[in-house]
Amino acid sequence: MDLFEYQGKQFFAYYGMPVSPGQIAFTTEEAVSAAEELGTPVMVKAQVHTGGRGKAGGVKFAADIDAVREHASNILGLDIKGHIVGRVWIEKASDIQEEYYASFTLDRSAKKHLGMLSKEGGVEIEAVAESNPDAIAKIWVDPVDGLTREACEEWVLQASLPEQAVQGTIEILMQLYTAYTEGDADLVEINPLILTPQGNVHVLDAKVTLDGNSQFRHEDYAQFDETQTRDERETAAHAKGLQYVGLDGSVGVIANGAGLAMSTVDVINQVGGQPANFLDIGGGANADVMAGALEVINNDPNVKAIFINIFGGITRGEEVANGILEAMKRVEISSPIVIRLDGTNADEGRAILEPNLSDKLLMEDTMLDAAKKSVELVS
Amino acid sequence: MSIFVDENTKVVYQGLTGSQGSYYGRLNREYGTQVVAGTHPKKGGTEFDGVPIFSTVAEAVNETGATASCIFIPAAGVKGAVLEAAEGGIKFIVAITEGVPAHDEAFFFNQLKRDYPDVQLLGPNCPGIISPGKCNIGITAGHIAKSGGPVGIVSRSGTLTYQALYELKQKNIGVTTCVGIGGDPVPGTSFIDCLSAFEADPETKAVMMIGEIGGSAEEEAAEFIQQHMTKPVTSYIAGVTAPPGKKMGHAGAIVSGGKGTAQAKMEALESAGVKVGQNPTEAGELMAEIVALF
After folding, report:
1. Beta strand segments in B100-205, E
2. Pick from B110, B257, B280: which is nearest to A111 by CB?
3. Which of A129, A138, B34, B200 has the fewest C-beta atoms lying within 10 Å of its C-beta?
4. Structural domain ending residue among the three candidates A70, A92, A114
């Protein structure tokens, strides 16, 4: 789950980190009254789940209220890499002396947490890694030990920050690590972390991705789930608890297992077709799940054929077969369905489907043949 | 021979009495797996389908001599279950459960490595392991696997693991062991752990490796193959057409910052001498060509 910048800052503030006061605004009027309350100058910042806001004109300095009005009205509705800005964060402007970078994420190769700190902040860290890798001080933290203060101090020294920034940075990094681990984040990133002319170290931006799998111990994360960027189809699928990613083609895909779903999308492309989506109905899928999946696919106007690719392990063949028949009773499915069914109880499943086969419901033996048939039906 | 498990492996099921645990526990037993015990904190002393239930893994180990465990406990309890198994004396832990938080996985991976270095964890979020004809721990449909070798299979994806077994069976090719390592960010068992075990197993003559987008495990495996494998390897990588920045179901399957693409993985494997198929069927055909030469 990706957080908006302001949600990330509220998340950081909860763990005691210094962020600037600000308010969220959905309209120009709200932006103006927020700025009046905070007092100018302020920053007007687009809230979108993508980078490169500044370059796209989504982050502006406003010296007075007229400037706030102008910038907010320009930024709201702006298209930043396909993300339409629906809300702006109005924040008290800060004086900046220097800009740093700090983050924690999981290093999947090392299987440890990786902290990165650089005195070259305010730019893409990938660019720094490319041009000046020595400017990034790294620390690998064993999750069992956690980040000790001594290790953190040593790490900060490696980054060669100016003396006056050292203590404040250590404090923030200790809090950032706590936020990262206790908050079950996949990524916490501050870019830039700034040093003000007054000598304070301060969080000026926040990028936070939370692990959706941790929601069972973070009930309040439901609020972030609601603000994820999803298209209409993805929203409908998500409401049904389905793993769905929207694509641009005309062959609807339903498969069990992420790997098989990915592979199905690949194979459709290989035989000259275009998949409309990735949809993994997952383990333990029953008639309800299958029916829900078919409803979502059926509501996509681009879909001209549906390929159901099931290899039974957790999902049992007869459940799949019953699910398909049940769904066909519940919704009028407008596209022909091609089924490929194998694995646990596949014979039972096929036997259930057999008497129901028609030009609207076809069955093929192999994944490749079923993909070819689906693509043929579309063209 | 097989790797990690064989016909003598005694297995305790953590969560045997739950709906998934009981369903697959029964299937595993029917397959011939030695299902010697189940655990449930409140049902110790009872029986489930003739299998004794203990309150803790330690008791189950003491009473039955179990050396492996299979976890079907909900995600919130997996961290505790893994550590309980290791502490109780289990040497091979198979965690089937999906949806375990990445921080929990990173925690118990490192805890095991430090305090129980001789314990091998498989998963979480994996289909388990099957040594056809000998032992099946997890959710693989046993009938799709042909026993006897000469091929070993290691896979990051559940259903593609079954697909791989099935492709080989269609071609009358047997499998020594098939290991599903799972699609999560911190898998307990890596490609390299399995490749190295297959390299050492005299019965395994070739290895099929199924990968997917995200992370760098396939690239690391390619390096290992280049340096240490004498046995031929074929591969398939899922997600060639996956759009960047979109998580394709598995927590670990995401192309981000231009890293973890299927293309890069296929190239790394090919340059290590691995024959890479464009789809699971083609990977099976490539393996059939190799096996025909034995």
Report:
1. 120-122, 128-131, 135-138, 150-155, 174-180
2. B110
3. B200
4. A92
Segment A178-230, tens digit of pLDDT: 999 999 999 999 999 999 999 999 999 999 999 999 999 999 999 898 888 78
- Which one of A92, A121, A147 terminates a domain? A92
- Give the amino acid at A160: S
Interstrand relation of B120-122 and A83-84 (parallel, antiparallel or unpaired): unpaired
Within 8 A of B185 by CB-CB distance, chain A residues are 106, 108
CATH number at residue A46: 3.30.1490.20
Q: Per-10-residue mean pLDDT for chain B, 294 residues long? A: 93 95 95 97 95 98 98 97 98 96 98 98 96 95 89 92 89 96 95 98 97 95 98 96 83 79 96 94 94 92
Look at chain A and report how many structural domains it folds into: 3
Interface test with A, best of B20, B78, B103 (most A CBs within 10 A): B103
Tell whether A172 and A244 lie within a shared domain.
no
Same domain, A130 and A177: yes
The pLDDT value recorded for residue B253 is 83
Whichever domain contains A213, its CATH number is: 3.30.470.20
Subunit contact A256:B103, Cβ cutoff 8 A: no
Supply the range of the domain harboring residue A81.
21-92
User: Tell me, what's the ipTM?
Assistant: 0.93
Residues of chain A in contact with residue B243, where contact means CB-CB under 8 angstroms, are: 245, 247
A-chain residues near B102 (CB < 8 A):
106, 184, 186, 211, 213
Please indicate, yes or no, whether residues A239 and A361 belong to a single structural domain of this protein: yes
A261 CA: distance to closest CA in chain B (Å): 8
Angle formed at CA B291 by CA B290 and CA B293, multiple of 5 degrees: 70
Q: Say how far apart CA A232 and CA B6 lie, in whole Å.
A: 49
pLDDT at A284: 55
Please tell me which residue in A100, A101, A177, A180 is annotated as part of the active site.
A101
Arithmetic mean of pLDDT, A135-150: 97
Neighbours of A334 (CB within 10 A): 12
Chain B residue whose CA is closest to A282: B249
Cα(B258)–Cα(B269) distance, integer angstroms: 18
Whether the pLDDT of residue A82 is over 70: the answer is yes
- Which of B100, B185, B281 lies closest to A366 in CB terms? B281
Determine, yes or no, domain membership for A14.
Answer: no
Burial A114-130 (b: 16+ CB within 10 A, else e): bbbbbbbbbeebeebee
Domain annotation covers residue A3: no
Same domain? A83 vs A137: no
- State the amino acid at position A141 in one-letter form: V
Query: If contacts are CB pairs under 8 Å, which of residues 42-101 in chain B contact chain A?
Result: 75-76, 98-101
CATH code assigned at A370: 3.40.50.261
Separation CA A228–CA A107 (nearest Å): 25
Tokens of B215: 């992370």
Chain A hits for B166, CB-CB cut-off 8 Å, are 311, 342-343
A234 is written with which tokens?
Answer: 């993805």
Please indicate, yes or no, whether the overall pTM of this predicted structure exceeds 0.90: yes
- Taking the CA of residue A170 and the nearest CA in chain B, the distance in Å comes to 23
Q: Is A15 domain-assigned?
A: no
Which residue type, as a one-letter code, is found at position A42?
V
Statement to judge: residues A271 and A170 lie in one domain: no
- Please report whether residue A147 resides in a domain: yes
Positions of B marked active-site? 250
Same domain? For A211 and A257 the reply is no
Same domain for A291 and A164? no
